Amino acid sequence: MHLVASTGGKGGTGKSTFAILFAVKSSKQGNKVLLCDCDVECPNDYLLLSKKISDTKPIYQDFPELNNEKCLSCGSCSKICRENAIFWIKDRNPTFIYNLCNSCGACWITCPQKAIGIKKGMIGESFLTKVNNRLWLFTGISKPGVARTEPVVQETKQRALDFAKENKIDIVIVDTSPGAHCNVILAISGSEKAYLVTEPTPLGAHDAELILQLLKIMKIPAEIVLNKADVGEKEIIHKIADKFNTRIAFEIPYSDRLVKAYSFGRLGEVADLI
Amino acid sequence: MKVVIASGKGGTGKSMIASSLSILFSNFKNVIACDCDVDAPNLGLWLGVTKYDSSEKIAISEKASINLDKCTECGKCLDACRFGAIEKKKNFYVNSLACEGCGVCQLVCQADAVELRFVINAEIMIKKTDWGLNLISGQVYPGASGSGKIVQKLRKKAEKFSHDVMILDSAAGIGCPVIASITGCDYAVLVTEPTPSSFTDLKRVIEIVDHFRMPFGVVINKWDINPKLSEEIEKWSSKSLLGKVSYDKAVITSIVNLRPVITSKSKVAKEIEAVFKTLKSNIGA
Q1: Distances in Å between the alpha carbon of B282 and those of B161, B186, B205, B275, B277?
Q2: Do the Cβ atoms of B172 and A48 come within 8 Å?
Q3: CA separation, residue B155 to residues A83, B37, B266 (Å)
Q4: Which letter does DSSP use for residue B56 in this model?
Q5: Identity of the residue in A106, A213, A232 whose CB atom sits nearest the CB atom of B142
Q6: What's the pTM?
Q7: Domain range for A100
């Protein structure tokens, strides 16, 4: 099984577009393909393929739960929490601020009274969509208001990989969120290759360089996908490709057909563009 | 007055609008522009800034490391770490890309072999721009963590500049760094495009803005790439619509030449000025 990622730093450069075109093309070549949308805060792949959210399975996170009777209001939990997620005033029982909690477990390990239990809280969902006989889409979607969405990415990817194993998928393509933060790192980790989707503008170039540095640290080989290749100045992206000793694997010219397919959720029909 | 620019989906035009509004406000107000997209900061480029006046290194998160001389290889840290950051090959070691610096490994280690150290994970840069306004921008180092905390730090620094208006250009998404950008603002400008993805993501970001009971206005960027859907969004937004901006090659020309689009003689510049006018009357500036 091959595992590749579509990423890019800047938003709107065409990460999802490329991931979908690549997935559809690979499936047409006879491969069994799983596309995994790990942009869990704003997943769009299902919309771009005119699919609906359905049969969702919840994703849970462990949160601390206080047994008020056992608690002696010592404040140890509040002092040990590095996320400042436990609010405590002397001689009062602590309050947990779940939005700041990363479920590290320091509080329940530390509590001398064993007054902190674990409860599950829903932080997002995942769902599987069959696109055609050889192409499936796995989507993760965070619950609005949840600040720490990393566990949603992690669980979505795990479920996707389990599905891929069971169903003997040939290629898993992970579509990441914009940026270069934890969610992106989690989404691309373990990939044998990352496609960096960018555009020939100073903005695209700036963010491409950041991602190439990240991929270098992560020891993941990168190839560049130049989207809207004819709009702007290609030279700046070539320079970066040379600097990082990588190549431009795909060039996608600006096309009205692509823009229309994107905006009407018919990206599956234009896979000939790559 | 604090105005935050958000969108959910990336690449809809947040930084283009944020840079334009910053310049337009600076014509009659004291402005500080904050680039809160610390992962992939682009507001500077939209303001034509490539060099900053000053920059400061920030150490905001901690990372664990294992002292192999003390480690007894009991494996307690490996079992306790919930981020999969402890790995064992020949020895136990910490994968710093996965480490959240929570300190649980240190808590469970009975050999006192785990150390937590602050790491420099970001830079905060400042520039007095040609447009009279101050720009403060953050940059998380590739592979470092803590975007939300860096946004908080950046905002604290921004407060020290004398200003009447603060413009906060947020990251894409609706998670930690975005919530850190929206918290405590007075008004949100939400930038969308007439595509199903962008419209869906707009609704998701509105759930966050509503949570803070914050008034907001909607800008439809590149409205003419899908007039039908644009009309639908317009109707849906009703009174919160701030205006529409056309798809215009002048935007690309401006960014390629690193010249703020609002200073160009173009259709978009005029349309953004109209958005600004509506915004001004909405917030009473």
Answers
A1: 25, 11, 20, 11, 9
A2: no
A3: 18, 12, 33
A4: E
A5: A213
A6: 0.94
A7: 68-114
- The domain segmentation of chain B, as residue ranges, is 2-49+129-283, 59-120
Note the pLDDT tens digit of each residue in B53-93. 999 999 988 999 999 999 999 999 999 999 999 999 999 99
| Cβ–Cβ below 8 Å for B207 and A82 | no
Do A103 and A73 reside in the same domain of the chain?
yes
Q: How far apart are CA A77 and CA A163, in angstroms?
A: 38
Q: How far is B98 from chain A (nearest CA, A)?
A: 8
Does residue A197 sit in the same domain as residue A239?
yes
Q: Rounded to an integer, what distance in angstroms lies between the CA atom of residue B76 and that of residue B110?
A: 9
A269 and A173, same domain (yes or no): yes
Q: Residue A119 falls within a domain, yes or no?
A: no
Q: Are residues A152 and A263 in the same domain?
A: yes
Convert the pLDDT of each residue in B148-180 to its tens digit: 999 999 999 999 999 999 999 999 999 999 999
- ipTM for the assembly: 0.92
A203/B42 Cβ within 8 A: yes
Taking the Cβ of residue B173 and every Cβ of chain A, the question of whether any pair is shorter than 8 Å is answered with yes
Question: Could you name the CATH architecture of B59-120?
Answer: 2-Layer Sandwich (3.30)
Domain B2-49+129-283 has CATH 3.40.50.300: yes
